[in-house]
Write a structure and sequence with these properties.
With 191 residues, this protein is of the alpha+beta class. The chain contains five helices and nine strands, in the order αβαββαββααββββ. β7 and β8 form a beta hairpin.
């Protein structure tokens, strides 16, 4: 070793670039999340995307999977946006639960709500083995928990599609907290 006793990131031979490239594949560090979302939003120019707190994100995950799943969520939103539901809010929400740091990414299509009951949507999800919810859940398994919130046929619920915390599959939520159809991705980090 030319740089014996020193960290490889300080190696004059160019290891820093390789290490930093690898780091950005396994860790979301400011301003990574903001840049990822902005690049995805560019693919859907008809959507009006507002960002909040994304520059505070710092957590470990497979960044390729995160980017791919966010892209598919944006595509699904865009496909169902129509002319009136173009405003999208994307926010990062840090939290703590017991011995875990929680890293939430909430994507909300403002004003858009499900016209179907939550029971109808879940029945379709379980029986069809396809569609957006099924495919996205299959691709998110093992990376994060995923919930969606909406007024479902006028009633406010959170559907915990992927959850390893023991939460109920359907949770009633406060109507005032539902400003549109929201996707909530939750990443856990041990304290």
């Amino acid at each position: 070793l030319k740089n014996e006793g020193k960290h490889p990131i300080t190696d004059i031979g160019g290891m820093e670039k390789t290490i930093q490239h690898f780091r950005h594949t396994v860790r979301v560090v400011a301003p990574d999340l903001e840049q990822i979302v902005k690049r995805i939003a560019e693919k859907f120019p008809s959507l009006l995307v507002k960002l909040s707190n994304l520059d505070k994100a710092d957590f470990y995950t497979n960044v390729f999977v995160l980017r791919s799943r966010l892209t598919d969520i944006f595509k699904d939103i865009n496909d169902h946006a129509g002319q009136e539901y173009k405003e999208i809010h994307v926010e990062y929400i840090p939290d703590i639960s017991g011995e875990y740091f929680l890293h939430h990414i909430r994507i909300t299509q403002v004003g858009s709500f499900s016209t179907l009951s939550i029971e109808t949507v879940i029945r379709k999800y379980k029986s069809s083995g396809g569609g957006f919810f099924y495919e996205n859940a299959e691709k998110l398994k093992g990376y994060c928990n995923w919930s969606v919130e909406s007024l479902w046929d006028g009633k406010p619920f959170r559907w915990n599609i992927l959850d390893d915390t023991g939460a109920e599959i359907i949770e009633q939520i406060d109507t005032k907290d539902v400003i549109g159809f929201s996707h909530l991705l939750t990443f856990y980090q041990k304290d």
